[in-house]
């Protein structure tokens, strides 16, 4: 049997479309991802490398500035002068404040040296972050000496500083408070876990007191400061700079870009002309490349600003009730809906809303916060946003009888009476997301 092997070679042409991720395109995408502050930093670095490029940032006195403690939530502002209250001051850090008190109040002794050493282990919340045994090994001090030093540290302000846990922090504050409830100190000292876990029957039996008296102690404790160092900061806090401003005039909503979000790029024409007179080819090539870079950056900045504005305008159009209704309702909205409306890819919308903020007369909001998932409410395709449902749940809990709080099933029934259909499990999920305790933990025992 004879086998024949034949090899044929054919040449064919095939056309395909492929998006090449050039360096310029990558840089354009990068600029869209940047928030305003990062964009300015990026452009300033480019200006250092390019002598033909100058960055001018126009200031806008109408902007409200907000500390970026929680960028995922909105910050409210009642007046245009509130930004003055938001400027971080140059007050002492907690570390400096404690050191100054030690030097002012304690004599220069070995015990004072131990107190100063302990302060190094006080974290930003005011707690002693390292076990005394570890510190004893470092200092070679005796256990009694370290405990004495800790006592001196805990006598300083703010009250509660130097505590090793929450229980000790509360005890330090109760001890110094002349108007604390009589049994507050001993109950926190001996029954802290039972108090926190609402096993109040044990406490009621141990001290032969009424439940309403325990409730009064709990109400008092909730007014204490769990983080003594909260009023101090070791570094300046950053600020949120809005990208767009929304103005409501009657039923009309106006959306505009801020000047800071679209900085002006200036081309150094005179310098370019002077350098172009040289016959050196390397210099001419350098100038040509730098001019091209300027033109690309200028185009990218303008395109970035226009894209963010278009996305913001569509968001405002879709969520107009949020800006007109004092209850601030949000409807169901997804990234792909906005992308389809303005004719861009969904990823472009995602980059345009992350870290970008919208300023109104009633607060600052991240653009991403306007996108919410909806829950179907029937066969007609009606949907309610999860944000609106959460607001309804929050309102029901706020208005409930605290002596007989609503169970999750009762909340389901109350929502159903408002034609909002969700399951008990969904209520429990949203309640957890809102940090609302269960009905058993919300129950109060007030004096009758």
From TrEMBL:
Residues of the RNA polymerase sigma factor 54 DNA-binding domain: 286-444
PROSITE patterns per the UniProt record, alphabetical: SIGMA54_2, SIGMA54_3
Keyword flag DNA-binding: yes
Pfam families: Sigma54_AID, Sigma54_CBD, Sigma54_DBD
Keywords (A to Z) from UniProt: DNA-binding, DNA-directed RNA polymerase, Nucleotidyltransferase, Sigma factor, Transcription, Transcription regulation, Transferase
Keyword Nucleus: no
The RNA polymerase sigma factor 54 core-binding domain, residue ranges: 84-271
Entry-linked NCBIfam families: rpoN_sigma (TIGR02395)
Family: Belongs to the sigma-54 factor family.
Name of the protein this chain belongs to: RNA polymerase factor sigma-54
Organism: Candidatus Vagococcus giribetii
